[in-house]
Design goal:
It contains 18 helices and 6 strands. The protein is mostly helical. The protein folds into 3 domains: about 90 residues, Fumarase/aspartase (N-terminal domain) (Fumarase C, Chain B, domain 1, Orthogonal Bundle); about 220 residues, Fumarase C, Chain A, domain 2; about 80 residues, Ribonucleotide Reductase Protein R1, domain 1, CATH 1.10.40. The strands form 3 sheets. Strands 1-2 form a two-stranded antiparallel sheet. Strands 3-4 form a two-stranded parallel ribbon. α7 runs antiparallel to α10. The chain is elongated, with a radius of gyration of 31 Å. The structure holds arginine. Its main location: cytoplasm. GO terms for molecular function: argininosuccinate lyase activity. It catalyses: 2-(N(omega)-L-arginino)succinate = fumarate + L-arginine.
Amino acid sequence: MKLWGGRFTKEEDTLMKVFNSSLEEDLALVEEDLDGSIAHAEMLVHCHIISQEEGEKIVQGLHKIKQDIATGNLVVEGNHEDIHSFVEATLTEMIGEAGKKLHTSRSRNDQVATDLKLYTKKRAKETINKLQLLIHSLEKTAVANQHVIMPGYTHLQRAQVVTFGYHLRAYIEMFRRDTKRLEQTVANLNESPLGSGALAGTTHDIDREITAEKLGFSKSTANFMDGVSDRDFIIELLSDLSIIMMHVSRLSEELILWSSQEFSFIKIDDAYATGSSIMPQKKNPDAAELIRGKTGKVYGALVSVLTTMKGLPLAYNKDMQEVKSPMFQAVDEVLLSIKMMDKMVATVQVNGEQMKQAIKAGFLNATEVADYLVQKGVPFRDAHGVVGAIVLYGEKVGKSIEQLTLEELQQFSDSIEQDIFAYVDYTNLLKRGNKKEMLD
Ligand code: ARG
Protein backbone atom coordinates (compact mmCIF):
# COMPACT_ATOMS: atom_id res chain seq x y z
CA MET A 1 0.00 0.00 0.00
CA LYS A 2 1.25 3.39 -1.03
CA LEU A 3 0.55 6.75 0.64
CA TRP A 4 0.18 8.52 -2.69
CA GLY A 5 -0.52 7.59 -6.29
CA GLY A 6 -3.81 9.31 -7.13
CA ARG A 7 -2.26 11.76 -9.53
CA PHE A 8 0.03 9.27 -11.24
CA THR A 9 -0.63 7.45 -14.49
CA LYS A 10 2.32 5.11 -14.35
CA GLU A 11 3.84 2.73 -11.81
CA GLU A 12 7.17 3.64 -10.26
CA ASP A 13 10.20 2.10 -11.92
CA THR A 14 11.66 -0.76 -9.84
CA LEU A 15 14.99 1.00 -9.52
CA MET A 16 13.17 4.16 -8.44
CA LYS A 17 11.45 2.22 -5.67
CA VAL A 18 14.72 0.90 -4.33
CA PHE A 19 16.44 4.24 -4.81
CA ASN A 20 13.69 6.12 -3.02
CA SER A 21 13.14 3.80 -0.08
CA SER A 22 14.62 4.50 3.33
CA LEU A 23 12.79 1.67 5.08
CA GLU A 24 15.88 -0.32 5.96
CA GLU A 25 17.70 2.51 7.73
CA ASP A 26 14.42 3.79 9.20
CA LEU A 27 14.32 0.69 11.37
CA ALA A 28 16.32 2.75 13.86
CA LEU A 29 13.38 5.19 14.10
CA VAL A 30 10.54 2.74 14.57
CA GLU A 31 10.00 3.40 18.26
CA GLU A 32 10.10 7.16 17.84
CA ASP A 33 7.75 6.97 14.86
CA LEU A 34 5.19 4.95 16.82
CA ASP A 35 5.44 7.23 19.86
CA GLY A 36 4.96 10.26 17.63
CA SER A 37 1.91 8.66 16.02
CA ILE A 38 0.37 7.74 19.36
CA ALA A 39 0.76 11.31 20.63
CA HIS A 40 -0.66 12.67 17.36
CA ALA A 41 -3.71 10.38 17.47
CA GLU A 42 -4.45 11.28 21.09
CA MET A 43 -4.21 14.96 20.22
CA LEU A 44 -6.60 14.50 17.27
CA VAL A 45 -9.15 13.00 19.67
CA HIS A 46 -8.65 15.78 22.19
CA CYS A 47 -9.25 18.38 19.48
CA HIS A 48 -12.33 16.50 18.17
CA ILE A 49 -10.76 15.93 14.78
CA ILE A 50 -11.27 12.17 15.01
CA SER A 51 -13.71 10.34 17.29
CA GLN A 52 -12.81 8.85 20.65
CA GLU A 53 -13.51 5.40 19.26
CA GLU A 54 -11.29 5.88 16.21
CA GLY A 55 -8.57 7.28 18.42
CA GLU A 56 -8.67 4.30 20.75
CA LYS A 57 -8.49 1.87 17.84
CA ILE A 58 -5.52 3.71 16.40
CA VAL A 59 -3.65 3.98 19.68
CA GLN A 60 -4.26 0.32 20.57
CA GLY A 61 -3.16 -0.70 17.09
CA LEU A 62 0.03 1.33 17.37
CA HIS A 63 0.81 -0.22 20.76
CA LYS A 64 0.21 -3.65 19.26
CA ILE A 65 2.62 -2.87 16.41
CA LYS A 66 5.20 -1.79 18.97
CA GLN A 67 4.76 -5.00 20.90
CA ASP A 68 4.78 -7.22 17.82
CA ILE A 69 8.02 -5.66 16.62
CA ALA A 70 9.57 -6.13 20.06
CA THR A 71 8.59 -9.80 20.20
CA GLY A 72 9.62 -10.44 16.61
CA ASN A 73 6.05 -11.20 15.47
CA LEU A 74 6.23 -8.27 13.08
CA VAL A 75 9.22 -7.50 10.90
CA VAL A 76 9.80 -4.08 9.38
CA GLU A 77 10.12 -4.99 5.72
CA GLY A 78 8.26 -4.99 2.45
CA ASN A 79 7.53 -2.66 -0.35
CA HIS A 80 7.23 0.51 1.71
CA GLU A 81 8.83 3.86 1.02
CA ASP A 82 9.78 4.52 4.61
CA ILE A 83 8.90 3.75 8.23
CA HIS A 84 6.00 6.20 8.18
CA SER A 85 4.42 4.42 5.23
CA PHE A 86 5.08 1.04 6.83
CA VAL A 87 3.37 2.00 10.09
CA GLU A 88 0.31 3.48 8.40
CA ALA A 89 -0.09 0.49 6.08
CA THR A 90 0.38 -2.03 8.89
CA LEU A 91 -2.03 -0.15 11.13
CA THR A 92 -4.72 0.09 8.47
CA GLU A 93 -4.36 -3.60 7.71
CA MET A 94 -4.71 -4.33 11.39
CA ILE A 95 -7.61 -2.02 12.41
CA GLY A 96 -9.29 -1.13 9.12
CA GLU A 97 -10.79 2.26 8.14
CA ALA A 98 -9.73 4.16 11.30
CA GLY A 99 -6.09 3.61 10.35
CA LYS A 100 -6.58 5.84 7.32
CA LYS A 101 -7.39 8.77 9.60
CA LEU A 102 -4.10 8.78 11.49
CA HIS A 103 -2.40 11.00 8.94
CA THR A 104 -4.99 13.79 9.33
CA SER A 105 -3.23 17.15 9.71
CA ARG A 106 0.30 15.92 9.57
CA SER A 107 2.87 15.13 6.91
CA ARG A 108 5.79 12.78 6.76
CA ASN A 109 7.89 15.93 6.78
CA ASP A 110 6.95 16.98 10.30
CA GLN A 111 6.87 13.30 11.27
CA VAL A 112 10.45 12.55 10.26
CA ALA A 113 11.71 15.76 11.84
CA THR A 114 9.98 14.76 15.10
CA ASP A 115 11.29 11.19 14.94
CA LEU A 116 14.82 12.43 14.39
CA LYS A 117 14.67 14.84 17.29
CA LEU A 118 13.41 12.11 19.62
CA TYR A 119 16.11 9.78 18.33
CA THR A 120 18.86 12.39 18.74
CA LYS A 121 17.74 13.05 22.30
CA LYS A 122 17.77 9.35 23.16
CA ARG A 123 21.17 8.68 21.64
CA ALA A 124 22.73 11.82 23.14
CA LYS A 125 21.60 10.63 26.58
CA GLU A 126 22.99 7.17 25.90
CA THR A 127 26.31 8.74 24.94
CA ILE A 128 26.31 10.83 28.12
CA ASN A 129 25.78 7.65 30.18
CA LYS A 130 28.61 5.82 28.44
CA LEU A 131 30.88 8.81 28.96
CA GLN A 132 30.12 8.73 32.69
CA LEU A 133 31.26 5.09 32.81
CA LEU A 134 34.48 5.98 31.01
CA ILE A 135 35.07 8.91 33.36
CA HIS A 136 34.57 6.52 36.28
CA SER A 137 37.17 4.07 34.94
CA LEU A 138 39.63 6.87 34.25
CA GLU A 139 39.10 8.13 37.78
CA LYS A 140 39.76 4.68 39.25
CA THR A 141 42.94 4.16 37.23
CA ALA A 142 44.04 7.73 38.05
CA VAL A 143 43.58 7.17 41.78
CA ALA A 144 45.54 3.92 41.61
CA ASN A 145 48.39 5.80 39.89
CA GLN A 146 48.14 9.06 41.76
CA HIS A 147 51.81 9.10 42.77
CA VAL A 148 53.34 7.29 39.80
CA ILE A 149 55.68 9.87 38.33
CA MET A 150 56.33 10.03 34.61
CA PRO A 151 57.69 12.45 32.06
CA GLY A 152 55.20 15.01 30.83
CA TYR A 153 55.77 16.00 27.21
CA THR A 154 55.47 18.98 24.95
CA HIS A 155 56.32 18.50 21.26
CA LEU A 156 56.67 14.84 22.33
CA GLN A 157 59.95 15.88 23.98
CA ARG A 158 60.40 15.21 27.67
CA ALA A 159 59.43 18.41 29.45
CA GLN A 160 58.59 18.23 33.15
CA VAL A 161 57.57 15.62 35.68
CA VAL A 162 53.87 14.80 36.05
CA THR A 163 52.06 11.80 37.47
CA PHE A 164 50.28 9.14 35.46
CA GLY A 165 47.13 9.78 37.45
CA TYR A 166 47.27 13.48 36.60
CA HIS A 167 47.82 12.75 32.93
CA LEU A 168 44.68 10.60 32.88
CA ARG A 169 42.76 13.32 34.68
CA ALA A 170 43.31 15.62 31.71
CA TYR A 171 41.09 13.24 29.72
CA ILE A 172 38.44 13.30 32.43
CA GLU A 173 38.18 17.07 31.88
CA MET A 174 37.72 16.54 28.13
CA PHE A 175 34.95 14.00 28.66
CA ARG A 176 33.24 16.33 31.14
CA ARG A 177 33.17 19.07 28.52
CA ASP A 178 31.85 16.54 26.00
CA THR A 179 29.05 15.71 28.41
CA LYS A 180 28.12 19.38 28.73
CA ARG A 181 28.09 19.77 24.96
CA LEU A 182 25.71 16.84 24.57
CA GLU A 183 23.43 18.24 27.27
CA GLN A 184 23.37 21.54 25.39
CA THR A 185 22.50 19.77 22.15
CA VAL A 186 19.54 18.11 23.87
CA ALA A 187 18.44 21.44 25.34
CA ASN A 188 18.67 23.20 21.95
CA LEU A 189 16.55 20.67 20.08
CA ASN A 190 13.82 20.48 22.65
CA GLU A 191 10.98 21.93 20.53
CA SER A 192 8.46 19.74 18.72
CA PRO A 193 8.04 20.17 14.95
CA LEU A 194 4.95 17.92 14.91
CA GLY A 195 1.90 19.70 13.53
CA SER A 196 3.94 21.85 11.14
CA GLY A 197 2.40 19.78 8.35
CA ALA A 198 4.32 19.54 5.11
CA LEU A 199 5.59 23.11 5.57
CA ALA A 200 2.59 25.35 6.09
CA GLY A 201 0.59 24.03 9.03
CA THR A 202 -2.99 22.76 8.66
CA THR A 203 -6.54 24.11 8.40
CA HIS A 204 -7.60 21.85 11.29
CA ASP A 205 -7.66 23.28 14.78
CA ILE A 206 -4.97 21.06 16.21
CA ASP A 207 -3.12 21.72 19.44
CA ARG A 208 0.62 21.37 18.95
CA GLU A 209 1.39 21.94 22.60
CA ILE A 210 -0.39 18.69 23.48
CA THR A 211 1.83 16.58 21.23
CA ALA A 212 4.90 18.54 22.29
CA GLU A 213 4.17 17.77 25.93
CA LYS A 214 3.26 14.13 25.35
CA LEU A 215 6.56 13.58 23.55
CA GLY A 216 8.61 15.29 26.25
CA PHE A 217 9.46 18.49 24.36
CA SER A 218 9.37 21.77 26.27
CA LYS A 219 7.22 23.46 23.57
CA SER A 220 6.50 23.35 19.85
CA THR A 221 8.66 24.98 17.19
CA ALA A 222 7.78 28.58 16.33
CA ASN A 223 7.95 28.34 12.54
CA PHE A 224 6.47 25.53 10.42
CA MET A 225 8.98 25.89 7.60
CA ASP A 226 11.91 25.81 9.98
CA GLY A 227 10.30 22.98 11.93
CA VAL A 228 10.25 20.58 8.98
CA SER A 229 13.59 21.55 7.47
CA ASP A 230 15.78 21.96 10.54
CA ARG A 231 18.49 19.35 10.89
CA ASP A 232 20.81 21.52 13.01
CA PHE A 233 20.42 19.12 15.92
CA ILE A 234 21.91 16.29 13.87
CA ILE A 235 24.85 18.48 12.93
CA GLU A 236 25.23 19.48 16.58
CA LEU A 237 25.15 15.86 17.69
CA LEU A 238 27.70 14.92 15.03
CA SER A 239 29.92 17.82 16.09
CA ASP A 240 29.73 16.64 19.69
CA LEU A 241 30.49 13.09 18.60
CA SER A 242 33.40 14.24 16.43
CA ILE A 243 34.94 16.05 19.39
CA ILE A 244 34.44 12.97 21.58
CA MET A 245 36.16 10.84 18.95
CA MET A 246 39.00 13.38 18.71
CA HIS A 247 39.46 12.92 22.47
CA VAL A 248 39.30 9.11 22.53
CA SER A 249 41.57 9.10 19.49
CA ARG A 250 44.19 11.20 21.29
CA LEU A 251 44.01 8.84 24.25
CA SER A 252 44.27 5.89 21.85
CA GLU A 253 47.36 7.43 20.31
CA GLU A 254 48.94 7.72 23.76
CA LEU A 255 48.07 4.12 24.65
CA ILE A 256 49.63 3.01 21.38
CA LEU A 257 52.82 5.01 22.02
CA TRP A 258 53.07 4.03 25.69
CA SER A 259 52.63 0.34 24.94
CA SER A 260 55.38 0.38 22.29
CA GLN A 261 58.72 -1.11 23.28
CA GLU A 262 60.30 2.32 22.88
CA PHE A 263 58.21 3.63 25.79
CA SER A 264 57.12 0.47 27.66
CA PHE A 265 55.12 2.62 30.08
CA ILE A 266 52.03 0.44 29.96
CA LYS A 267 50.75 -2.91 28.84
CA ILE A 268 47.36 -3.12 27.17
CA ASP A 269 45.42 -6.11 28.43
CA ASP A 270 45.69 -9.15 26.14
CA ALA A 271 41.92 -9.12 25.76
CA TYR A 272 42.10 -5.89 23.74
CA ALA A 273 45.13 -6.68 21.60
CA THR A 274 45.74 -9.06 18.73
CA GLY A 275 48.68 -10.94 17.23
CA SER A 276 50.30 -11.29 13.86
CA SER A 277 49.77 -14.14 11.43
CA ILE A 278 53.47 -14.21 10.60
CA MET A 279 55.42 -12.62 13.48
CA PRO A 280 54.90 -14.82 16.52
CA GLN A 281 56.16 -12.25 19.01
CA LYS A 282 53.72 -9.49 18.06
CA LYS A 283 51.08 -7.99 20.31
CA ASN A 284 49.32 -5.18 18.54
CA PRO A 285 47.12 -2.47 20.12
CA ASP A 286 44.31 -2.98 17.60
CA ALA A 287 41.45 -1.71 19.76
CA ALA A 288 43.16 1.64 20.22
CA GLU A 289 44.08 1.79 16.54
CA LEU A 290 40.50 1.05 15.53
CA ILE A 291 39.20 3.85 17.73
CA ARG A 292 41.72 6.18 16.08
CA GLY A 293 40.59 4.92 12.69
CA LYS A 294 36.86 5.19 13.35
CA THR A 295 37.36 8.85 14.21
CA GLY A 296 37.68 9.54 10.49
CA LYS A 297 34.33 7.90 9.83
CA VAL A 298 32.60 10.06 12.41
CA TYR A 299 34.17 13.26 11.03
CA GLY A 300 33.02 12.02 7.63
CA ALA A 301 29.43 11.82 8.86
CA LEU A 302 29.59 15.41 10.11
CA VAL A 303 30.96 16.70 6.82
CA SER A 304 28.45 14.58 4.90
CA VAL A 305 25.45 16.09 6.70
CA LEU A 306 26.81 19.63 6.54
CA THR A 307 27.33 19.22 2.82
CA THR A 308 23.89 17.70 2.23
CA MET A 309 22.21 20.59 4.02
CA LYS A 310 24.20 23.52 2.71
CA GLY A 311 22.37 24.26 -0.53
CA LEU A 312 18.82 23.29 0.34
CA PRO A 313 16.07 25.82 -0.26
CA LEU A 314 13.24 25.82 2.28
CA ALA A 315 11.47 23.73 3.29
CA TYR A 316 11.70 19.91 3.08
CA ASN A 317 13.76 18.33 0.31
CA LYS A 318 14.33 14.63 -0.24
CA ASP A 319 18.09 15.19 0.05
CA MET A 320 17.42 15.25 3.78
CA GLN A 321 16.69 11.53 3.74
CA GLU A 322 20.44 11.09 3.23
CA VAL A 323 21.39 12.60 6.60
CA LYS A 324 19.96 9.70 8.54
CA SER A 325 22.28 6.78 7.90
CA PRO A 326 25.57 8.68 8.46
CA MET A 327 24.17 9.82 11.78
CA PHE A 328 22.94 6.37 12.84
CA GLN A 329 26.28 4.80 11.96
CA ALA A 330 28.28 7.53 13.67
CA VAL A 331 26.39 7.13 16.96
CA ASP A 332 26.89 3.36 16.88
CA GLU A 333 30.62 3.73 16.26
CA VAL A 334 31.03 6.33 18.99
CA LEU A 335 29.19 4.27 21.62
CA LEU A 336 31.29 1.23 20.75
CA SER A 337 34.51 3.25 20.85
CA ILE A 338 33.72 4.75 24.26
CA LYS A 339 32.89 1.29 25.62
CA MET A 340 36.10 -0.16 24.23
CA MET A 341 38.18 2.68 25.65
CA ASP A 342 36.49 2.17 29.01
CA LYS A 343 37.54 -1.49 29.04
CA MET A 344 41.12 -0.69 28.02
CA VAL A 345 41.50 2.03 30.64
CA ALA A 346 40.07 -0.19 33.38
CA THR A 347 42.52 -3.02 32.66
CA VAL A 348 45.69 -1.21 31.64
CA GLN A 349 48.86 -2.37 33.44
CA VAL A 350 51.14 0.47 34.42
CA ASN A 351 54.93 0.11 34.47
CA GLY A 352 55.76 2.77 37.04
CA GLU A 353 59.41 1.73 37.22
CA GLN A 354 59.89 2.34 33.50
CA MET A 355 58.20 5.73 33.77
CA LYS A 356 60.54 6.67 36.61
CA GLN A 357 63.56 5.56 34.59
CA ALA A 358 62.42 7.77 31.71
CA ILE A 359 62.49 10.80 33.97
CA LYS A 360 66.19 10.38 34.63
CA ALA A 361 67.20 11.37 31.14
CA GLY A 362 66.07 14.59 29.55
CA PHE A 363 66.71 17.18 32.28
CA LEU A 364 63.09 17.19 33.38
CA ASN A 365 63.98 19.23 36.47
CA ALA A 366 65.72 22.03 34.57
CA THR A 367 62.79 24.41 35.07
CA GLU A 368 62.85 23.68 38.78
CA VAL A 369 66.61 24.48 38.95
CA ALA A 370 65.70 27.88 37.51
CA ASP A 371 62.92 28.19 40.13
CA TYR A 372 65.55 27.38 42.79
CA LEU A 373 67.77 30.20 41.58
CA VAL A 374 64.82 32.60 41.55
CA GLN A 375 64.21 31.73 45.20
CA LYS A 376 67.83 32.66 45.84
CA GLY A 377 67.21 36.10 44.32
CA VAL A 378 68.35 35.53 40.71
CA PRO A 379 65.97 37.10 38.14
CA PHE A 380 64.16 34.33 36.19
CA ARG A 381 65.58 35.30 32.77
CA ASP A 382 69.16 35.14 34.15
CA ALA A 383 68.36 31.86 35.92
CA HIS A 384 67.06 30.44 32.61
CA GLY A 385 70.40 31.25 30.95
CA VAL A 386 72.40 29.71 33.81
CA VAL A 387 70.40 26.46 33.70
CA GLY A 388 70.71 26.33 29.90
CA ALA A 389 74.48 26.36 30.34
CA ILE A 390 74.25 23.65 33.03
CA VAL A 391 72.20 21.44 30.66
CA LEU A 392 74.73 21.95 27.86
CA TYR A 393 77.52 20.94 30.26
CA GLY A 394 75.50 17.93 31.55
CA GLU A 395 74.94 16.74 27.99
CA LYS A 396 78.68 17.03 27.31
CA VAL A 397 79.74 15.03 30.36
CA GLY A 398 76.78 12.62 30.13
CA LYS A 399 75.23 13.46 33.50
CA SER A 400 71.82 14.63 34.64
CA ILE A 401 71.62 17.79 36.80
CA GLU A 402 71.27 15.88 40.06
CA GLN A 403 74.29 13.76 39.15
CA LEU A 404 76.58 16.82 38.93
CA THR A 405 78.63 17.67 42.02
CA LEU A 406 78.02 20.86 43.97
CA GLU A 407 81.40 22.14 42.77
CA GLU A 408 80.47 21.53 39.16
CA LEU A 409 77.16 23.32 39.65
CA GLN A 410 78.73 26.25 41.47
CA GLN A 411 80.86 27.01 38.40
CA PHE A 412 77.64 28.32 36.82
CA SER A 413 76.30 30.36 39.72
CA ASP A 414 77.48 31.09 43.22
CA SER A 415 73.84 31.18 44.36
CA ILE A 416 73.79 27.38 44.17
CA GLU A 417 74.16 25.62 47.51
CA GLN A 418 73.83 22.10 48.89
CA ASP A 419 70.03 22.45 49.28
CA ILE A 420 69.66 22.40 45.48
CA PHE A 421 69.66 18.60 45.45
CA ALA A 422 66.62 18.30 47.68
CA TYR A 423 64.87 21.09 45.73
CA VAL A 424 65.19 19.43 42.33
CA ASP A 425 64.45 15.89 43.50
CA TYR A 426 61.61 14.65 41.29
CA THR A 427 59.33 13.52 44.06
CA ASN A 428 60.00 16.56 46.26
CA LEU A 429 59.36 19.08 43.53
CA LEU A 430 55.81 17.80 43.05
CA LYS A 431 55.10 18.86 46.61
CA ARG A 432 55.89 22.54 45.93
CA GLY A 433 53.76 25.41 44.69
CA ASN A 434 50.65 24.54 42.72
CA LYS A 435 52.27 21.31 41.56
CA LYS A 436 50.75 19.89 44.75
CA GLU A 437 47.44 19.76 42.84
CA MET A 438 48.87 16.93 40.74
CA LEU A 439 49.03 14.74 43.80
CA ASP A 440 45.57 15.61 45.19
N1 ARG B 1 11.49 9.27 4.05
C1 ARG B 1 11.62 10.68 4.16
C2 ARG B 1 12.84 11.04 5.00
O1 ARG B 1 13.37 10.21 5.62
C3 ARG B 1 10.43 11.32 4.80
C4 ARG B 1 9.30 11.41 3.87
C5 ARG B 1 9.20 12.69 3.19
N2 ARG B 1 8.71 12.40 1.88
C6 ARG B 1 8.08 13.26 1.14
N3 ARG B 1 7.66 12.86 0.01
N4 ARG B 1 7.88 14.47 1.51
O2 ARG B 1 13.26 12.16 5.03
